[in-house]
Design brief:
Radius of gyration: 39 Å
Strand order of the largest sheet: 4-3-2-1-5
Oligomer: single chain
Number of helices: 3
Mean pLDDT: 84
Number of domains: 1
Shape: globular
Number of strands: 5
Strand content: 5-15%
Largest sheet: 5 strands, antiparallel
């Protein structure tokens, strides 16, 4: 006997009304499954094979990268240093220009004469000193400090931006008994000033000097650190002249303030009247009459010397002096 059985069509599984969750990392919907079964969502795009497989740098490539980096540093660092020195040199020239204006203001109120403190012509007709507390007679730096005492220049102007000399700007009160009368020391002055103490005929530091007379400039190198302002002839090559240039700008030269009020950068110390060496005295003793000394001589340097002629620029103090 054949029994007819009703064959029921298989029904598709009921779909869940809940929306599938999405992966927090890939954003791909996570497949659902029976309870207790843990499934992982996989991003199909992550299974694709790249035609360019990743690999580490080889030693040769690393050496090439380092070499390129070193070459770039060798090119850019000197350029940056030159740009910085150029800016400092310009700022230094501006300081000297302002000090020149202060000197002319002082001269206008002092019968044409530039600053000068006590000159002991009887006991010390030649020679100079600096940074004394008194100040003592023949003190060059105390003479220059008169610009500060009279409110004509700020102490910060006496520092060259290319050096570590950074004088503090203080309000000077001339009514105070303990008010300073001189710079604190070499760390507070980066410039030299034409020595105003000499009994040479017709010599005097005033507004009546020739236009090309050097009144101030970057600090003299003296004889310190391998330099010697007296050992280099006027026609020496640039590398040798560097031994007699100011250290303020890496011995490349010095900013010079002339009596006319202009400031120029010179690559040689022979920048005065008739190529006079501005960092030395032309002769050991002042010349009172007769033939003027030869301006292009290297000259002499020391605290016992003074300008030897009416147009002899002798800018002091110097590195290591006094």
């Amino acid at each position: 006997m054949i029994v007819n059985r009703r064959i029921r069509a298989a029904r598709p599984p009921a779909r869940s009304l809940r929306r599938p969750r999405r992966s927090l990392t890939t954003g791909v919907p996570e497949p659902t499954g029976p309870a207790g079964v843990l499934r992982f969502a996989v991003d199909p795009s992550s299974c694709r094979l790249s035609p360019f497989p990743r690999r580490a740098f080889s030693l040769t490539e690393l050496v090439v990268v380092v070499a390129v980096f070193v070459i770039l540093l060798a090119i850019l660092v000197p350029y940056a240093l030159r740009a910085r020195e150029g800016a400092n040199r310009t700022a230094c020239a501006d300081h000297l220009r302002q000090l020149g204006a202060a000197l002319r203001t002082y001269a206008a109120a002092n019968r044409g004469s530039y600053p000068r403190t006590t000159y002991d012509e009887a006991n010390r007709p030649t020679g100079w000193t600096a940074f004394t507390r008194g100040p003592d007679a023949n003190d060059v730096t105390a003479s220059l400090f008169l610009l500060v005492r009279n409110g004509m220049a700020k102490p910060s102007l006496f520092g060259c931006p290319s050096t570590d000399v950074r004088p503090r700007d203080v309000v000077y009160d001339v009514t105070q008994a303990n008010a300073p009368r001189n710079f604190d020391g070499p760390r507070s002055l980066a410039y030299g000033y034409a020595c105003p103490f000499s009994n040479a005929a017709e010599y005097g530091v005033s507004e009546y000097l020739p236009a090309d007379f050097a009144v101030m400039a970057d600090l003299s190198p003296g004889r310190a650190n391998g330099a010697d302002a007296t050992a280099v002839p006027v026609d020496a090559p640039p590398l040798e002249l560097a031994k007699a240039n100011s250290p303020n700008h890496g011995t490349a030269g010095q900013n010079v303030l002339f009596a006319a009020g202009n400031v120029e950068f010179r690559g040689t110390p022979y920048a005065g009247v008739e190529r006079d060496n501005i960092y030395t005295a032309q002769e050991p003793n002042p010349v009172f009459s007769g033939t003027k000394p030869l301006h292009t001589k290297p000259g002499v340097l020391g605290t016992q010397y003074s300008p030897a002629w009416k147009t002899d620029s002798f800018l002091v103090p110097a590195v290591g002096l006094p």
